[in-house]
Amino acid sequence: MRLVTLTLNPAIDQTVTLDALTPGSVHRARSVWSDAGGKGVNVACCLADWGLAIAATGVLGQDNAAPFAQLLAAKSIDDRFVWIPGETRTNLKLLDASGGDTTDINLPGLEFGPSTVEAVRAVLADLTGPGSLAVLAGSLPRSLGPDIYARLTAELKRRGARVVLDASGPALAAALAAGRDSLPDAIKPNRHELEEWAGRPLPTLADVLDAAHHLQRSGIALVCVSLGAEGALFVSSEGALRALPPPTRVASTVGAGDALVAGLVAGLHDGLPLPDLARRALAFAAGKLSRTGANLPPRAEVEAIAADIQVERLG
Ligand SMILES: Nc1ncnc2c1ncn2[C@@H]1O[C@H](COP(=O)(O)OP(=O)(O)O)[C@@H](O)[C@H]1O
Ligand SMILES: O=P(O)(O)OC[C@H]1O[C@](O)(COP(=O)(O)O)[C@@H](O)[C@@H]1O
Fold first, then answer.
1. What confidence category does residue 92 fall into, taking pLDDT thresholds of 50, 70 and 90?
2. Residue 58 falls within a domain, yes or no?
3. Quick one: which of 100, 106, 278, 287 could link to 243 by a disulfide (CB 3.0–4.6 Å)?
4. Which residues contact residue 134 at a Cβ distance below 8 angstroms, ignoring those fewer than 6 apart?
5. Contact, 15 vs 93, CB < 8 A?
């Protein structure tokens, strides 16, 4: 199965560790480090660590290319990015050492026009066909309309590929408003993104489950809702279940959602039944949490984490 990820708005994640984050005051950082990332890049990194052959495409700036070129080469990811003049954005991640919380400041990113979109579409057309799987992930540059994921999903589906979508806001809403044949095969909103789509708060697990069921019945084969430290909920034709994260030493939560998506893809790749797929997804997230950057522990360690993950059937 050919696997490809798309990142239209990648980022260099600059993580700044502070003793404590106090808005409005001067901080002296304890440490700072940078990781080339962005949602599809991170998914590709985790899948490469797991041992799958993977291509990554999207749009990157030529002026700060080195960290991405090095990362993709180091992980043997097939680099199919479209490189354009300018700098890929840097996103700030403020890690508060007192409580362990991370505050994300995500910048808008490089803008580009229709000819760059055409170049990306051509790469996707070249990389996908019947049996392939594409992950479309992350925010969109401001120069693009919110229907880009909906259009790309429809094209990929027509070509016989499966689509996993990790998006938010209007881009997610547009993709979920498509006709049944053009819907993504799997989505992974977090609770907040699902609430935005639903247009109402979803305070209880039953509320989240209702919204996820609604989406699954509308034609999305697999709906996974990530719930941070509370784990994740999975709904497919096999039923609904919740998986609980194992006790984990958290080095960085940045990219945990992307690792979860990578675990879903690895599970879909192997045709796992829903409970095992959920365990694998949570194990990818837990494995990544123990490390900085989009890095997984060795495969045997991830498998051992998966074996211990508690899964409970819902409703
Ligand atoms: N603080 C945490 N403790 C344990 N597991 C976590 C924590 N934060 C995230 N996770 C794991 O990572 C997954 C994705 O995290 P989440 O924050 O929901 O994603 P996103 O970054 O997309 O919002 C969760 O489903 C959970 O398994
Ligand atoms: O594409 P967006 O939504 O702007 O998010 C980009 C950010 O999300 C990340 O991919 C991390 O995402 P998660 O923590 O949700 O897994 C970072 O690498 C990047 O800074």
1. very high
2. yes
3. 278
4. 3, 4, 5, 6, 124, 127, 128, 156, 161, 162, 163, 164
5. yes
Report pLDDT digits (tens) over 72-84. 999 999 999 999 9
The span from the CA of 131 to the CA of 136, in Å, is 16
**pLDDT above 70 coverage of the chain, percent:** 100
CB 77 within 8 A of CB 57: no
**Distance in Å, CA 10 to ligand 2 centroid:** 8
**Helix 66-74 and helix 39-50: axis angle, to 10°?**
20
- What's the DSSP call for residue 225? E
Sign of torsion over alpha carbons 249, 254, 257, 260: negative
Q: Spot the catalytic one: 35, 166, 185, 258.
A: 258
Q: Does 101 reside within a domain?
A: no
For residue 53, the model assigns a pLDDT of 98
Which ligand is nearest to the Cα of residue 13, counting in written order? 2
Structural domain containing residue 252: 39-81+118-314
Q: Could you tell me if residue 54 is inside a domain?
A: yes
Asked if 262 and 280 touch (Cβ cutoff 8 Å), the reply is no
Q: Say yes or no: CB of residue 38 within 6 Å of ligand 2.
A: yes
* Cα(140) to centroid(ligand 2), Å: 12
- Domain containing residue 176: CATH number: 3.40.1190.20
- Asked whether the beta carbons of 217 and 187 are under 8 A apart, the reply is no
Number of domains in the chain: 1
Given a cut of 90, is residue 100 above it in pLDDT?
Answer: no
Burial of 249 from C-beta contacts in 10 A (0-12 / 13-18 / 19+): exposed
Ligand 1 pocket test: pick from 93, 226, 242 the residue with the most ligand atoms within 8 Å of its Cβ: 226
The answer to whether position 93 is within a domain reads no
pTM above 0.80, yes or no: yes
Let me know how long the chain is. Answer: 315
ipTM: 0.98
